[in-house]
Amino acid sequence: MIRWVPEDEWPIRILCSETNGMTLMIEELRRGALLSRLDAEQLERVARHAVRVHLDPDQWLFSQGDTASRFYLLLAGQMQLFRLSSDGAEKVIEIVSPGQTFAEALMFLNAPRYPVCAAALCASELIAIDAQDFAVMLRESVDTCFLLLGTLSQRLRRLIGEIDELTLHNATSRVSRYLVTKMPPGARTLELDVRKGILASRLSVQPETFSRVVKSLSARGVIRMRGSRVTVLDSGALMRIAELDEPREPGSNATGDLGPLKRHS
Q1: What is the pLDDT of residues 1-22, one digit of tens each?
Q2: Contact (CB, 8 A) for 140 and 80
């Protein structure tokens, strides 16, 4: 059961940074692509207004429609961003990994609200960044604005690629692409780090469709799946099924992490 802790109860879950922890937090902030190129003074300013958040597995960080006063950097664990349909079903929009930020674009909106829910898939640690103060800092530095625009532009480019994934490739191709891009370099074995139902939603296929695809690939001798472990038996066939433009080794991540896939097959 997913549990939600509203922000006004956060003191029981948050450890505020103290002076002796400032250096550590600044180093942690550098892990985020959005924050890594900020100068020392800017990072210190962000850290002064930031707080740590510790979430238990399945605990909610925020709910769809909540006021968006902060954006987040994930330090450890894994988060899912999802929307709830009218019948209560979860539609996974994105799976967030350590080093990634999320909800930062909302700082540019007047009276912003989170368009999705966020919950921890496992025990997770985040830094919650004051969006209003960060926006003030952007107004004071044109260079920082361009850094942020560059990061958001890369994300937009990735999303355009996801539209291609949805419109040009079927469920089997999308699952195969995921396996190719997630396979560690030089390896033939992958441990799926999310539950299959969440992964299916993430790849915009129904859980039963995901199971059929895995069963089909296994029957064709392309992969072998035991529990959460996937072994590639025929990498050439997997590449062809994935419909990638050019041959590349599993784990090359040439297509990038799969972003928010929304449509279901």
Answers
A1: 444 455 555 433 444 445 557 8
A2: no
> 151 in helix, strand or coil?
helix
Which parts of the chain fold into alpha helices (H)? Answer: 22-29, 40-48, 131-140, 142-168, 171-182, 196-202, 207-219, 235-242
Same domain, 145 and 198: no
Question: CA distances (Å), 74 to each of 4, 125, 167, 206, 238, in order?
Answer: 18, 6, 30, 28, 32
Task: Give the separation between CA 243 and CA 121, rounded to whole angstroms.
Answer: 30
Q: Which domain holds residue 61?
A: 3-162
pTM above 0.85, yes or no: no
Q: Report in angstroms the alpha-carbon separations of 167 from 86, 125, 157, 214, 263.
A: 25, 35, 16, 21, 9
Q: Cα angle at 193 between 220 and 61, to 5 degrees?
A: 140
